[in-house]
UniProtKB/TrEMBL annotation:
One of its GO terms (cellular component) is cytosol. One of its GO terms (molecular function) is metal ion binding. InterPro entries: Metalloenz_LuxS/M16, Pept_M16_N, Pept_M16_Zn_BS, Peptidase_M16, Peptidase_M16_C, Peptidase_M16_M, PqqF-like_C_4. Its cofactor is Zn(2+). Belongs to the peptidase M16 family. Residues 54-81 are annotated as: Disordered. Residues 139-274 form the Peptidase M16 N-terminal domain. Residues 301-483 form the Peptidase M16 C-terminal domain. Gene3D superfamilies: Metalloenzyme, LuxS/M16 peptidase-like. This is Metalloprotease. Its EC number is 3.4.24.56. The gene is STE23_5. One of its GO terms (biological process) is peptide catabolic process.
Length: 1276
């Protein structure tokens, strides 16, 4: 170098994994970017180059802050010798051969040497912050015992930066980026490599940034990192991927349309200033991207490249790399791989309205304040959101006034706003607060308060708003409480110091998220987001002053139509008016109820119906002078907050801890398990108290009562839960399949005190009629909202019948709730439950044996249950079921017409989880199947946005592979494509795999699964799983890992053939088959669902082809029998098959592509015969639309037609073939599958699974004591 460099220069080559040696570091590319040019380096070191300046950060002004805050991070910091030093190293670029390539190259970077970066107290990883010469900021992390390595890169460009004419372009870029680079052109290569090394990868786009991340095992990391880096250096953005990925974006959007939370966020954007970038559609869809480009005569790929070239700059990228490698080695790797990313300066555009007015805020007083946006939800929900524009919250990061304000507003103890509204029957759940876009430069923030209302609260929303401002006035009048602030500050301090460290990719994205907050100094990039460092009454009062009646607007949502709103409004307000005859606000509201249309507007992307109105002027004026209600008071002292956790005694750290709990007590009342933490040395712990209540699962009434009881208990625990959470203890009361579960998580010193308070509430259960009414109302709406769940999630309501002896779906539960449940019934049944139960206690973490036994004693002593006969089977009141052999299909119609996607879910059952070898093979198969399953069905065939396969263990001890597709295709088509993949899997994947490749996969899997527990919560989950199912096989993982060491190709093939291999598209496998394949078909309203008779007559290929023609609107199903029917399609296919009896789809890659002359002739003949039949019917088909539907070689109708010809089955040939002992509810189809008419009756006909035999000695450490022996009392 012609210029001297500051700091030490490290020479030599970093150690490179020989197995992954490659030309990973492209010197020529780096030189072409002038990174190594001495003049360019001098410019970077000495000049005030504009490319080194990030977006201007808002500075703390004297009129808002007491003292100046530390300066935010900036690329200019590298000039400060107290913060950074220039480092260099020399390395040789390594090629695929063992000989060095080219001359040694010297690389430079800046290393942060300022104040130590504060990380979480339990985090023992090593951190190094560097800045590359292209201005990319990089965090290098070394985790000594890490068995996986990974990287996360966040780009400071998101949906708000979309091009004005291309909504969703940032999201589309995220989809396209991972599909190949110049150096690694295979579009599926990165995902395949990551999966082969037992990893995962994903990406996401939000409003202000886009994140990309991956993880792999250590031995596959360096190649994965190089592939990852190339996406930001030379991505391909292949033309043939563009339309396919637009369809994936479109499918993702359609999946999101029914979700009310996303609809509300879109409405927030719709309501913003129409000239502001916030007012946009950030998801994008087919119309805003592909069709828009087509109509404008532009190439979408070229538009995407321009977007990428304009905004994707190293200056706005934050990279985190975590591995078990030495910090120097990892640093060198990062510098070499990512220095070639182009620096284009700060490319984040300034957020400002597009009308030239210069406004930066999306919500302004003259346009938005005092407005009420009434919108229609899809689910049965009543919601009120109040939004208050505020300053940028990052201005006050040391004080965090929103913490203080949020804790007061959401406080739920006596004399609180929440308690007041609950007792008036106006809300059903906790009040929620949030800060919207708090970290976006230049547009301010929004403080949001959300109320989940009852129907009465919806119609009387003005009362809720008035009560809110009354409570806020009480807070203002009381002044800023230093003692309350200190409780909050201590709570977040304890959380930051002692909570378990994040693991997996969540940790990587957490780091880059924190790095993106450039307003924080480097040493505070983690702690500054959470810790309350400075009590400033002035700052808190300043932010609190923004919460006033002249600075808000509101969103009011419900699923009610206009008529129901008017009827309910008049009913509730007239009733309230009789009680409060002097309430002018009610008179005004009643008068305003004459409006007939409440939703005159429609948002164009989600179809949200809404209306905007001015809030009543009299009501708004009354809010200016509202006074505190006498019921409102500031919260009392919180006794659960711990101030001395750093003084607790800890045991000596055990370098080789025995991760196995000890059974302390086992008797007729229950069992106690304990594991003292000697690995993490933290005050954290987790406590489970599981009540097995035999009477709960005996009928529908008790199960419905348990749901109401859980809600009522949670209501009674509101104050305890609130105080405990501030004190670092989280309470969860959950319904289990055989009773009730109580889980406490967090700091342990006061956990038994919390438990005692909870047991007292259970013992003295005294809810009010009003709370019962609220609970039943909320539960009823939860049940009705089941139809709005994502289609694949609704399959659980079917699988429940086939997996557990006692199960009731949401409709049965709703019927029971409406006909059999009243206040007295819940009280009476709950009293019976706790007369006889069996309790399982598990205490893991900072607990002594006496703590675990003490928890058990508190439960037994206070509730005084009758003992359970351990031999009676009462502690397993709901056994599991084992599905019948064969391919069983269950079909159902989705009731929500807004759900545009159908779904197929497949469970392929294998052996019980008690067999470690079976579980090991399933793990290997999952890793072998997943990459190509996704790339084939999702990426290549675009069957839907959600395509996945994973290993599942049921609660009842069965193991299976669960595959699912959520997409626009009809279920029959989706199933056939999935089956086609599995048909190819053995020949294309299992048979070609070499012993070396299998060993590599098993080694990678072993490395991942053999990692030790990372925190107390993970350890607890492992024990809890086996204790709850009564198997107690705590060494199951080690036994399975031992099997992995000796896994052979023969083992995999035999297992696949026995349990999974589909010999054909039918299921005629033979008498000795062990295949139990359960298919769930969920039909969206856009498709006709075949009847049981049609299922028996027509093979799946005909149903699939018919559905594909429906999808393209070629044919429309008709109930009058006049249109094209299954019989017409079947006859056409039969005719064509007779002419091409030996047709084989020329598609070796199974990508749906057949370019043969024969295949094209089949398509032409089908179209011709279909048009001929239409001419004789009362329906019509547009021939141009028909040609368009078959035009693409990957078009669904084309693929379905060729499948129907290739796999031709004569209609009705297998009818009445019995394949099951459950013949009264199972019927054979023409292609040899089985269709269920009544899946509930089918479930009742199945045999129960065998109970798992406990794998742990049930002899307790402390035998059952003699009640007369005082020395043993604490063990009873």
């Amino acid at each position: 170098m012609s210029e001297p460099v500051a700091g030490p220069v490290v020479t030599g080559s970093p150690v490179i994994d020989k197995e992954n040696r490659q030309d990973s570091f492209n010197v020529e590319v780096m030189m072409s970017n002038n990174i190594l040019d001495p003049l360019a380096l001098k410019k970077c070191l000495n000049a005030d180059d504009t490319s080194l300046v990030t977006a201007k950060q808002p500075q703390a002004s004297e009129d808002t802050l007491d003292d100046d805050y530390p300066a935010p991070r900036s690329p200019k910091d590298v000039k400060d010798p107290s913060k950074y030093r220039l480092r260099a190293f020399t390395a040789t670029c390594v090629s695929s051969s063992s000989e060095p390539k080219g001359e040694p190259v010297t690389y430079h970077y800046y290393e942060y040497i300022g104040p130590k970066i504060r990380t979480m107290g339990q985090d023992d990883r090593q951190y190094r912050l560097i800045r590359l010469l292209n201005n990319m900021e990089v965090m290098i992390i070394k985790e000594n015992e890490a068995r996986q390595a990974g990287a996360s890169l966040t780009v400071g460009v998101g949906g708000i930066h979309d091009l004005p004419t291309y909504a969703g372009i940032a999201h589309f870029c995220e989809h396209m980026l991972f599909l190949g680079s110049e150096k690694y052109p295979d579009e599926a290569g990165f995902r395949k490599h990551v999966y082969n090394y037992n990893g995962c990868t994903n990406a996401s786009t939000n409003m202000i940034e886009t994140n990309y991340h991956f993880m792999t095992s250590n031995d596959g990391f360096y190649k994965a990192l190089d592939m990852f880096a190339q996406f930001f250096i030379c991505p391909l953005f292949n033309e043939d991927c563009a339309e396919r990925e637009v369809k994936a974006v479109d499918s993702e959007h359609k999946k999101n349309i029914p979700e009310d939370s996303r609809r509300l966020f879109q409405l927030h954007r719709e309501f913003a200033d129409p000239h502001h970038p916030l007012n946009g559609f950030f998801s994008g869809n087919y119309q805003t991207l592909y069709e828009n480009a087509k109509s404008r005569g532009e190439n979408l790929r070229q538009v995407l490249i321009k977007f990428y070239e304009k905004y994707y700059s190293a200056d706005i990228m934050k990279l985190c790399i975590k591995s078990n490698k030495d910090l120097d080695e990892a640093t060198w790797t990062a510098v070499r791989m990512f220095s070639a990313v182009k620096s284009k300066g700060n490319t984040i555009p300034r957020i400002v309205t597009r009308d030239g007015s210069g406004h930066t805020r999306p919500y302004r007083k003259e346009r938005h304040m005092g407005k009420l946006v009434r919108y229609k939800t899809l689910s049965s929900t009543f919601m009120l959101c109040l939004l208050f524009p505020t300053d940028d919250h990052k201005l006050y990061y040391m004080t965090k006034p929103h913490y203080y304000i949020s804790e007061l507003i959401t406080y739920c103890g006596q004399h609180s706003l929440q308690r007041y509204l609950l007792e008036k029957g106006l809300i059903t759940h906790n009040i929620y607060t949030a800060c919207a876009f708090p970290y976006m430069v230049g547009i301010g923030g929004v403080f949001r308060v959300t109320f989940m209302l009852t129907e009465a609260g919806y119609h009387r929303y003005q009362e809720v708003i008035e009560a809110f401002f009354s409570y806020v006035q009480m807070i203002k009048d009381a002044g800023v409480s230093e003692s309350f602030y200190k409780e909050i500050a201590q709570s977040v301090e304890n959380s930051f110091e002692y909570r378990p460290c994040k693991v997996s990719y969540h940790f990587l994205t957490y780091v880059t998220d924190r790095m993106r907050k450039a307003y924080l100094p480097a040493d505070k990039m983690f702690s500054g987001v959470e810790i309350c460092e400075k009590f400033s009454p002035k700052v808190i009062s300043k932010v609190l002053s923004d919460i006033n009646s002249e600075n808000f607007f509101a969103f009011l949502g419900s699923s009610l139509d206009d008529e129901s709103i008017e009827k309910g409004l008049k009913s509730h307000l007239h009733q309230h008016h009789q009680i409060n005859s002097n309430d002018d606000g009610c008179d005004a509201a009643v008068a305003s109820a004459n409006t007939k249309c409440y939703y005159p507007l429609t948002e164009k992307h989600y179809g949200i119906q809404y209306g905007i109105q001015e809030m009543d002027s009299k009501f708004m004026n009354s809010l200016k002078t509202v006074q505190p209600q006498p019921e409102f008071q500031m919260p009392p002292k919180n006794n659960f907050v711990c101030y001395d956790l750093d003084t607790l005694p800890y045991p000596a750290k055990n370098d080789k801890p025995t991760f196995r709990p000890t059974l302390l007590i086992h008797n007729k009342f229950g069992e106690v398990w304990h594991r003292k933490d000697d690995a993490f040395l933290s005050p954290q712990g987790k406590l489970m108290v599981k009540f097995i209540i035999p009477s709960v699962v005996k009928d529908r009434q008790n199960l419905a009562c348990l749901r109401i009881y859980t809600q009522l208990i949670n209501d009674l625990l509101l104050q305890i839960s609130n105080d405990a959470e501030v004190g670092g203890i989280r309470i969860n009361v959950n319904i289990l399949n055989d009773g009730l579960g109580l889980f406490l998580t967090g700091t342990t010193p006061k956990m038994l005190l919390v438990l005692e308070s909870i047991i007292d509430k259970i013992k003295n259960f005294n809810p009010t009629q009003l709370s019962f009414n609220n609970a039943t109302d909320a539960f009823e709406r939860i049940l009705k909202n089941h139809i709005h769940h994502r289609p694949d999630l609704q399959s659980g309501g079917i699988l429940g019948y086939t997996s557990a002896k006692i199960f009731y779906n949401w409709k049965e539960t709703l019927e029971t709730l409406q006909k059999e449940i009243d206040f007295d019934t819940v009280i009476r049944n709950s009293q019976e439950w706790f007369k006889k139960f069996y309790v399982k206690v598990l205490a893991v973490g900072y607990f002594d044996e006496d703590d675990a036994i003490g928890a058990f004693n508190k439960v037994i002593d206070k509730l005084q249950p009758n003992p359970i006969d351990l031999e009676s089977g009462e502690i397993n009141p709901n056994p599991g079921l084992e599905p019948n052999l064969g391919q069983i299909i269950i079909q159902t119609r989705l009731e929500n017409e807004e759900l545009m996607n159908s779904a197929v879910v497949l469970d392929m059952y294998a052996k019980s989880i008690s067999d470690p070898k079976s579980v090991g093979i399933l793990n290997v198969l999952e890793k072998l199947i997943s990459p190509k399953f996704f790339s084939s069905l999702r990426t290549s065939q675009t069957l839907g946005y959600m395509v996945s396969i994973c290993r599942v263990e049921t609660e009842k001890g069965l193991s299976c592979l669960r595959a699912k597709i959520l997409g626009e295709g009809n279920p029959s088509y989706l199933r056939l494509r999935m089956l086609d993949y599995f048909k190819q899997f053995r020949a294309n994947v299992l048979e070609p795999i070499t012993a070396k490749e299998l060993k590599s996969i098993c080694r990678s899997l072993y490395s991942y699964l053999a990692r030790p527990f990372t925190d107390v919560n993970e350890e607890f989950s492992h024990y809890s799983k086996w204790i709850q199912c009564s198997f107690y096989c705590f060494d199951h993982k080690s036994r399975m890992l031992e099997e992995l060491k000796h896994m052979t190709k023969k083992d995999i093939l035999e297992f696949w053939d026995k349990y999974f291999e589909p010999l054909s598209l039918s299921s005629s496998d033979g008498d000795d088959s062990e295949k139990r394949h359960l298919w769930i078909h969920l039909y969206s309203s856009r498709y006709r669902m075949p009847t049981l008779y049609e299922r028996q007559i027509y093979p799946e290929t005909i149903l699939a082809l018919y559905g594909c023609l429906e999808k393209e609107n070629i044919i429309v199903s008709s109930d009058d029998g006049e249109g094209i029917d299954y019989s017409d399609i079947s006859e056409i296919v039969s005719s064509i098959h007779s002419k091409y009896p030996g047709f084989v789809n020329q598609d070796p890659g199974r990508k749906g592509i057949d370019t043969s002359v024969e295949g094209c002739s089949i398509v032409d003949q089908f179209k011709s015969e279909l048009l001929a039949r239409v001419s004789k019917a009362t329906t019509t088909i547009d021939s141009e639309e028909l040609d368009k539907a078959f035009e693409s070689k990957k078009a669904f109708p084309r693929i379905a037609l060729l499948m129907a010809i290739e796999n031709y089955i004569e209609p009705g040939q297998n009818i009445c073939v019995e394949k099951s002992s459950s013949s009264q509810v199972v019927f054979a189809t023409s292609d040899g599958n089985m269709i269920l008419e009544d899946f509930k009756s089918y479930g009742q006909s199945l045999e129960c699974t065998k109970l798992l035999v406990p794998q742990h000695s049930m002899v307790p450490k402390y035998a059952e004591a003699n009640p007369d022996d005082d020395s043993c009392q604490n063990h009873l």
